[in-house]
Amino acid sequence: MPRKGLDREQVLDAAEQIANQEGLQALTIARLAAALNIKPPSLYNHIESLDQLIDGLTVRGMRMMIDLTRDAAAGKSCKDALCAVAHVHRNAARTRPGLYTATQVSVQKFGPEAQELAGVYLQVILSVLQGYHLEEEQALHAVRILRALLKGFIDLELGGGFGMPLKIDETFQVMLDTFDAGLRRTGG
């Protein structure tokens, strides 16, 4: 029987808190049940599986990134939009790392809502890159490259992987300047 007063949103809230504080990989049924002060089998009254729980976090994360990205890019184009979106990603990874990480996994195994939101998010990013006049396939490659650049940079930064005495913010800007220049050459 479900714990009185506990609903799916509260379960997701607790899961998000664990993921943000300890990392998405720390989220387990046992850890979540302990956080909610219930026995692990009781958790299955609210969720079907750990995968379903992560699916729910991915949906939340996708909604967050879609809203943040649209807001950041509004009224901007090309490099201004690209930089605004990149900074939004970096800030989201710093402030809500578990939820951000949930948006970085393939949604192929998740439910239709996560897959639909991933498609919406792709369109949002493609619209950010629209000012570069890329062909359709070039634009898709550009999305992949941008994702890889941001994930790699963010992983290194959050993991303490930048040890040289250079300002990390400057390196981030050089990365974006270089990507912007490449997009301009490609798009013409």
Automatic annotation (TrEMBL):
<keyword id="KW-0805">Transcription regulation</keyword>
<feature type="DNA-binding region" description="H-T-H motif">
    <location>
        <begin position="28"/>
        <end position="47"/>
    </location>
</feature>
<dbReference type="InterPro" id="IPR036271">
    <property type="entry name" value="Tet_transcr_reg_TetR-rel_C_sf"/>
</dbReference>
<dbReference type="InterPro" id="IPR001647">
    <property type="entry name" value="HTH_TetR"/>
</dbReference>
<keyword id="KW-0238">DNA-binding</keyword>
<dbReference type="InterPro" id="IPR025996">
    <property type="entry name" value="MT1864/Rv1816-like_C"/>
</dbReference>
<dbReference type="InterPro" id="IPR050109">
    <property type="entry name" value="HTH-type_TetR-like_transc_reg"/>
</dbReference>
<dbReference type="GO" id="GO:0000976">
    <property type="term" value="F:transcription cis-regulatory region binding"/>
</dbReference>
<dbReference type="Pfam" id="PF00440">
    <property type="entry name" value="TetR_N"/>
</dbReference>
<dbReference type="GO" id="GO:0003700">
    <property type="term" value="F:DNA-binding transcription factor activity"/>
</dbReference>
<protein>
    <submittedName>
        <fullName>TetR family transcriptional regulator</fullName>
    </submittedName>
</protein>
<feature type="domain" description="HTH tetR-type">
    <location>
        <begin position="5"/>
        <end position="65"/>
    </location>
</feature>
<dbReference type="InterPro" id="IPR009057">
    <property type="entry name" value="Homeodomain-like_sf"/>
</dbReference>
<keyword id="KW-0804">Transcription</keyword>
<dbReference type="Pfam" id="PF13305">
    <property type="entry name" value="TetR_C_33"/>
</dbReference>
